Every structure is written in C-alpha cells, then in structure tokens.
Automatic annotation (TrEMBL):
One of its GO terms (cellular component) is plasma membrane. It is a multi-pass membrane protein. Residues 51-84 form the Neurotransmitter-gated ion-channel transmembrane domain. This is Neurotransmitter-gated ion-channel transmembrane domain-containing protein.
C-alpha cells in the first residue's frame, strides 16, 4: 500500500507505526488500532514566520530614536505604524 507523503508547514513526517490488536471488553472482543507518528520540526519555518517579522518591527520602531527632537510627527507616525504592524 503506497501512501501519499504528508506535507505540513512546520513539521516533517519521519516515520509512523501501526499496531492492530484484539482486546477483550465486557461487550466482547473488539479490534484496537494504535498509530504512532514521529515528526521532525522544521526550524526554518519558525525563523521566517516568527523571528524575521518580529525583528523587522523592532528595528523599525528604533528608527524614531535616531530622529531629532523636532521631528515629532515623524516619530509619532513610526511609533503608531510599528504598533499596528
């Protein structure tokens, strides 16, 4: 039986195992299926989706510290935009 590979944005399916056993219950014999999945985390996804946008927003908010004290409208605009992002 050929399975199509599973694609996830932040995990890679490495292996899986299937165990099928018959269990005795008060209502009779029942089949029990246990599946275990082993995933490997993709760190590149976290770097591109989490760290890069956060660091970029922080750097944009720091620009207002380098502007002169008379550039109040520009400082306000940078502060509000960095919070809205």
């Amino acid at each position: 039986m050929l399975l199509k590979p599973i694609e996830l944005p932040d995990f890679l399916l490495v292996n899986f195992s299937v165990i099928a056993i018959e269990q005795m219950y008060p209502a009779g014999w029942w089949d029990e299926l246990t599946v275990a999945f082993i995933f490997k985390r993709r760190y590149g996804w976290y770097i591109l989706q989490g760290y890069v946008p956060t660091i970029t927003t922080i750097f944009i908010s720091w620009i207002s510290f380098y502007l002169g004290p008379r550039a109040i409208p520009a400082r306000t605009m940078l502060g509000v935009n960095s919070l809205l992002v």
